[in-house]
Amino acid sequence: MTRSRHLAVAADPYPFELSPERCALLLIDLQRDFLEPGGFGEMLGNDTSLLLAAVEPTRRVLAKAREKGMLVIHTREGHRPDLSDCPPAKLTRGGKTFIGTEGAMGRILVRGQPGHDIVHQLYPIEGEPVIDKPGKGSFHATDLHQILLDRGIKTLIVCGVTLEVCVHTTVREANDRGYECVVLSDCVASYFPEFQRVGLEMIKAQGGIFGWVSDADKCIAAIA
Length: 224
Ligand code: C5J
Prior knowledge:
Layout: E1 7-9, E2 16-18, E3 23-28, H1 32-35, H2 40-43, H3 49-52, H4 55-67, E4 71-77, H5 88-91, E5 92-93, E6 96-97, E7 102-103, E8 106-107, E9 130-133, H6 144-150, E10 155-161, H7 163-176, E11 180-189, H8 193-208, E12 212-214, H9 216-223
Helix pairs in contact: 4-9
Residues 29, 34, 77, 161-162, 165-166 line the site of dicarbonimidic diamide (C5J).
């Protein structure tokens, strides 16, 4: 039996040991609709510039993960053009309908539209699975779990937006499916600074109830 290498990642609430062969980098919903003006995030009244801070640290982690041959998986939140996979309960917010309507980057959160695409700095390359998900969680109604099982993945290094919505939902789903999650604090972002702080606290509280919190530099130092 071959023993896999273990790398120590400086993290809270205590250092995390990962085996690079059993680890994937998961980039959640780094889409134009959330990060750029004129998309879903701005339509809901948010300042999208707050999310841009996560792009450069994530780009550096992504570059290192690619260099080291780590599995990289991207997710995109969005719906079929006929919205048949969008529950009526998700369609309206504050009495208004946004999903599926025409915006500055095409129809909001609809697959194939410019706004649904991933920002160019973090664009997937050949061989990196892209998971199209209709919900907040990356495991709901997708084949992510199967893809991870097939490759023997046990650990997820998590980046993406927004922290308190799709990142949290995914980390919680991953916990219940037996994955260990390390969330990189500067590679996740929220429209609400207080949610960014509390969202990270919630992950690492109680001895790491949902996982570990590290950052881009610490992660890069470990996998380098
Ligand atoms: C939201 C997401 N915030 N990707 N989606 O609606 O976090």
